[in-house]
Amino acid sequence: MTAASPRFVQVLDAIGWWGALLMVFVTVVYGLVLLVLSRSAPRKRAARRRAVLKAAETTEGSTQLARPRMVILIPCLNEAEVIVASVKALLASPAPDVHILVIDDGSEDGTADLVESIGDPRVSVMRRVLPNARLGKGEALNAALDLVRQRYVTGSANDVVVGVVDADGRLDPHAITEARISFADPEVGAVQMGVRINNRRRSLLARMQDMEFVIFIEVFQRGRRHLGSVGMGGNGQFVRLSALDALGPNPWSESLTEDFDLGIRLNASGWVNEFCREASVHQQGVTNFGRLMRQRTRWFQGNLQAMSLYKSVVRGHRGRARTDTLFQILTPYLVLTASLLTVSFIIALGMSIYWAIRGVPQHWEWLILAYVLAFGPAQAYGYIYWRIERVNKFSIFKAIGCSHIFVFYGMLGYIPGWWAVGRAMSNRTNWAKTAREAEEPQDAAAPAVAVGQAT
């Protein structure tokens, strides 16, 4: 046994080394593939959009689109800080036939009273009280959907689109019109808008969140349009009522990330999930480190819960969409593995420095490869972010600096990852919502430039 032990250790070391290399290779190649795909729109979708816009042009030069009834749901729990500004921003949209249903989920700060004081017939409030309130965002949305079916359906469910906007969400003025352009395609069952952080100029932490969302928008969501695996987010999502009905009477799950679950199940339902980069929803970034960690732990735990959808993805998805969706479901486990690889790298670097100090010659070429693998993709993403944000006088030098910081920001995800594992193992799923911060005047309205307009 003693003679075999060194050999056994060598085998384990080789397996670990080659396994780590394979994981890094797959992750880098996956990102590069989506980066290449994201640089163009799917031909069928692009041609369909051009046809819709051409057909909608009138002789006077204006555009008239088919107008499905839009019902915007805004789930709220103690949102007095932001709710009035958000509702008024939606009411200012030039798009006709938009109704707003605020779901007050047992607020104690007068949220519902503030909404009712707006006094606009397009706005209504659904008051939920304990013990039926505060059972999760998915439960609140499902309850509101029953009211939507009763109040707003006068013909086909195909003619009603249900939007979900967070209480701090600010849709671009043209967002509703862009959604209608997408829904003019009868195959489209859901549309997800891009997401921007409206207080990104006031906090480095908020800037990193904005960069994170832009990268997700410009690389992953745009790339997934080609794969048929576009995901849904909790803010700025629009879904045909008929597509929601196809998932049953309660389409939103009890998961901590009900939006992620919804997107996966919609992809398997026969409908097309579309991503709209021509408009965005602007939301408040978290500027407190502790609150950010709690928020991301909730998201991570919700993504862990998505493993329950694994079998349905294998059965219901097809081809590239199935492969990519399975990859998305497995991503949390890759993050956890990456955290162990990072620790291993730090230990190896520390040992190399230690032996160098002791006078033992060291080979440092591997550091160059490590830098390229860790920071190379970030530089490409930083360039894309600069292309988007330069209209707001964001310099290329800031983009380069933020790209390096972004790598370390990504490593912060290891903390909520293992925190979420601990919560999952102890069967804890209760969460308090992320507290809002007082808005500055410059953040109260969405910027005039959307993601799709800046490039």
TrEMBL record:
One of its GO terms (molecular function) is glycosyltransferase activity. The keyword Transferase applies. The chain crosses the membrane at residues 15-37, 330-357, 363-384, 396-421. The keyword rRNA processing does not apply. Keywords: Glycosyltransferase, Membrane, Transferase, Transmembrane, Transmembrane helix. InterPro entries: Nucleotide-diphossugar_trans. Pfam families: Glyco_tranf_2_3. It comes from the Bacteria. Belongs to the glycosyltransferase 2 family. PANTHER family: POLY-BETA-1,6-N-ACETYL-D-GLUCOSAMINE SYNTHASE. This is Multidrug transporter.
